[in-house]
UniProtKB/TrEMBL annotation:
<dbReference type="InterPro" id="IPR011990">
    <property type="entry name" value="TPR-like_helical_dom_sf"/>
</dbReference>
<dbReference type="InterPro" id="IPR011989">
    <property type="entry name" value="ARM-like"/>
</dbReference>
<dbReference type="InterPro" id="IPR058868">
    <property type="entry name" value="ARM_7"/>
</dbReference>
<feature type="region of interest" description="Disordered">
    <location>
        <begin position="555"/>
        <end position="602"/>
    </location>
</feature>
<feature type="compositionally biased region" description="Acidic residues">
    <location>
        <begin position="586"/>
        <end position="596"/>
    </location>
</feature>
<protein>
    <recommendedName>
        <fullName>ARM repeat N-terminal plant domain-containing protein</fullName>
    </recommendedName>
</protein>
<dbReference type="InterPro" id="IPR016024">
    <property type="entry name" value="ARM-type_fold"/>
</dbReference>
<feature type="compositionally biased region" description="Acidic residues">
    <location>
        <begin position="567"/>
        <end position="577"/>
    </location>
</feature>
<feature type="domain" description="ARM repeat N-terminal plant">
    <location>
        <begin position="7"/>
        <end position="244"/>
    </location>
</feature>
<dbReference type="Pfam" id="PF26524">
    <property type="entry name" value="ARM_7"/>
</dbReference>
Length: 602
């Protein structure tokens, strides 16, 4: 190199090169460094690579190193690690393939021209070898990340797709990633590779930190595999490979978890598949997927709108409509009052229009609808017509209807308090028939109250339906605390841990933000019963649960507390009926009326 610091023990030190004041000399020295590094066997090579890793993370759009050959250098280093195990095991060289693949992924995640340079530099073949698992799951994670970025761009996707094994490997990795990380790292603390631990925690944590980060990285490994598959799913020619029943049925259960909640994961891929005509047929033929899509569509998941899109596309396709309509309509009817979900506007109107088309197509003989399904759609359309009629009604008549609904609601509250739950539910139904459609706040309360009755009557599906309707009517959407709690309990009764967990967490958030004077007097605003449900469902929805059961880390019973934190005493767990029987706020329309735990037990 042209200039080396007199204090540096390493000839040609990269960090000394970067201190060169003359820009042209510095570029020439960096170019030389990138060319010579893969051929050197000196100690300390991991230091400049880790420095480049930091630079790539901090400045992924800077073209300087791209122009000077960093992709060629990283590709050569990965090949060296794959072919020369003696070199790989020397000094700290074991870290280098990981850093090299990570650098490639960082520089290609934003800029298409960088991705083109990477492809021309030949990065794909060594990344594919890492994807195969030639080293470990840690290198697989960064390889699938980098390949996912390269597959995102129109100009580089064909080269990625030309390596036919990438799609198959990604599908297998998406299905097996959690088990791989669990069995190769998480399960046996004393067998963990030291460099894995260092990469996970950067040397700043113990066993507990390693385990938490391993769960996060396992989720990323799965989600990044799904992201790569999603790039292929936009092309019809790859759908036969993707749409195999073994893989499709597992997609709804693939989610980012609480550690990777920003990824649409399995539901994102399902949405892409359902957008394609060739993809809708296989999805419609898997009953388990349709049921799961309905659950996600009703849930408070951030990706709720994706499930709704899937259901609507399946209904709009004459080749799949008849297969799914009876399962899909109940969920969509519950969601018909939704106005906006994030950036997605007028979802409720879209739902109503699609369901109306289903009725009309039946009249023309293009589809077959059961009498029960037809009745549900017609009831929905009648309610929309009722709303139009009410707009032309005198205000006095509307006030009379509202007052009559209030009287009937109070009768329902009285029946509920006396223990006549079935009678109370009937009164709330009667009140809903009287209550003006535009009185949304009152209708939220009526649906939520009836949901509570259904819970106590051990009818969780009906409770979920009414709680969902209340949450769709509420403003903001999905933020009515009592309905969230009631639906969380109903999901719990059905064993739907993820859906119950999401609702319970949102319920706790609403408790924490409540302005209710009684609630604000508490030192801890989060109800104990909600905390217990969250802990229970976090164990049941634990990312490694299936892998732990398979590998003997937990018995397939109960809520598996032995694998996810200390077990709670089951005798303290309140069932839905026990925890809400004493709730005297059933008829109130404020969001903050929850009794304390002692009162609930009474």
């Amino acid at each position: 190199m042209d200039k080396v610091s007199s204090d540096c023990p390493y000839p040609g030190c990269f960090f000394c090169v970067m201190k060169e004041a003359n820009p042209s000399k510095r570029r020439a020295s960096v170019l030389k460094f990138f060319r010579e590094l893969p051929c050197q066997d000196d100690d300390g090579q991991v230091l400049p690579i880790s420095g480049l890793w930091n630079t790539a993370m901090a400045h992924p759009n800077d073209p300087e190193f791209i122009e000077l050959g960093i992709f060629e250098c990283m590709s050569a280093l990965i090949w060296k690690g794959l072919k020369n195990r003696r070199w790989l095991s020397h000094d700290q060289n074991i870290y280098i393939p990981y850093y090299a693949a990570h650098i490639i992924g960082s520089y290609t995640m934003n800029m298409e021209e960088f991705a083109e340079s990477a492809v021309h530099a030949g990065v794909i073949p060594p990344l594919v070898e890492l994807l195969r698992g030639r080293l470990t799951w840690v290198e697989q994670r960064v390889a699938v990340r980098a390949l996912g970025h390269l597959a995102t761009y129109a100009s580089t996707f064909p080269t990625v797709a030309s390596h036919g094994e990438i799609l198959e490997l990604s599908i297998q990795l998406a299905m097996s990633s959690l088990e791989i990380v669990y069995s190769h790292f998480y399960q046996y603390v004393d067998r963990r590779l030291s460099y894995h631990c260092d990469l996970l925690t950067r040397g700043m944590g113990g066993v507990e930190m390693e385990s938490r980060k391993a769960e996060e990285w396992a989720s990323q490994l799965q989600c990044w595999s799904l992201q790569l598959i999603n790039c292929f799913a936009f092309k019809p020619e790859f759908l036969p490979t993707i749409c195999k029943q073994e893989f499709l049925t597992k997609l709804p259960g693939m989610w980012g978890g609480l550690v990777n909640e920003n990824s649409p994961a399995g539901i994102g891929l399902l949405r892409t598949i359902c957008h394609q005509k060739l993809g809708r047929g296989p999805v419609a033929s898997c009953p388990g997927i349709i049921e799961a899509l309905c659950n996600i569509a009703r849930s408070s998941d951030d990706w709720q709108y994706m499930a709704i899109d899937c259901l609507l596309w399946l209904l709009q396709d004459p080749n799949t409509c008849h297969k799914v309509i009876d399962k899909v309509v109940p969920a969509l009817v519950d969601l018909a009052e939704i106005t906006t979900l994030g950036d997605h506007k007028k979802l409720g109107d879209s739902i109503v229009n699609v369901l109306q088309d289903c009725i009309e197509s039946q009249g023309s003989g293009r589809s077959s609808i059961s009498s029960r399904t037809k009745e549900q759609i017609e009831d929905l359309l009648s309610s929309k017509q009722r709303l139009k009629w009410e707009k032309n009604m005198p205000k006095e008549d509307l006030h009379i209807k509202q007052a009559a609904a209030l009287v009937v609601k109070l009768e329902g509250n009285s029946l509920f308090s006396s223990g006549n739950i079935s009678g109370a539910a009937s009164k709330y139904s009667e009140a809903l028939a009287l209550c003006p459609m535009r009185s949304k706040k009152e209708r939220v309360v009526l649906y939520s109250n009836r949901a509570q009755c259904y819970l106590l009557l051990q009818q969780p599906l009906a409770a979920i339906s009414d709680a969902t309707r209340a949450l769709c009517l509420h403003r903001p959407v999905n933020r009515h605390a009592k309905s969230l709690w009631r639906r969380a309990q109903a999901y719990d009764m059905l064993g739907l841990a993820k859906e119950s967990l999401l609702d319970a967490i949102l319920f706790i958030n609403e408790c924490s933000q409540s302005n209710d004077p009684d609630l604000s007097l508490r030192q801890n605003k989060v109800p104990d019963y909600a905390e217990r449900l969250v802990k229970k469902q976090m164990r049941a929805a634990w990312l490694f649960r299936e892998a732990a059961i398979k590998h003997g880390g937990v018995h397939n019973q109960g809520d598996g507390g032995d694998i996810y934190g200390p077990e709670t005493d089951d005798s303290e767990w309140e069932t839905a009926s026990e925890s809400d029987m004493g709730n005297d706020g059933i008829g109130d329309d404020d969001d903050g009326d929850w009794n304390n735990d002692d009162e609930r037990k009474d």
